[in-house]
Amino acid sequence: MKKVLFSFLAVLFLAACEGPVGPPGRPGPQGPPGEGVVWDVLFFEVRNSGWTNTWAFSSTPDGDFFSTVIHIPELTPDVFDYGAVMVFLEWVDNGVLRQQPLPRSLPVRGLECFENEYGVEECWEVAWTEHFDFEYDENGFLQIFFTVSDFKYMDWHPGTRHFRVVLLW
After folding, report:
1. How far apart are CA 158 and CA 147, in angstroms?
2. Paired strand residues for 108
3. What pTM value is reported for the model?
4. Cα–Cα distance, 13 to 53 (Å, whole number)
5. Beta 84-93 vs 64-71: how paired, if at all?
6. Which of the 8 DSSP states describes residue 119?
7. Is the pLDDT of residue 151 over 70?
8. Strand (E) positions, the chain?
9. What three-state secondary structure class fits 90?
10. 107 pairs with which residues across the strands?
């Protein structure tokens, strides 16, 4: 029985592969146009008062972070499920508009000055890193986080920041 089955399959296999490939058939009818990628670009300004300071439990005393929540009606459940959200930090540097995608970590240097017990102002250079990140939900809310590493600011806010949000679906 095995010999008969093997012989049948061998003949079928060899008979199916004979001759050169024929010419291609005629093109079919034109299909309906596809949707393609749809996008929306939105711009937001978060003023200094728009940031909320939150203390988070952490193993270091630097558990503070700032965040802001932006409602974006265009961030629909379809965009959440089938699209993508990109957020860019925008700023002007020497008259040139610049953008950088989030997440972003930027080393920063500055001067820290205070008046000592003798009434003399003392200053020294300090360095830290600023971190921006974001998350979004299916209800159309975008939350942007700002964290400063290395030390904790007292009575300090991130200032006014500009963001560009790109929705793709």
Report:
1. 9
2. 128
3. 0.68
4. 73
5. unpaired
6. S
7. no
8. 39-46, 52-55, 64-71, 84-93, 96-101, 104-115, 121-136, 141-148, 161-168
9. strand
10. 129
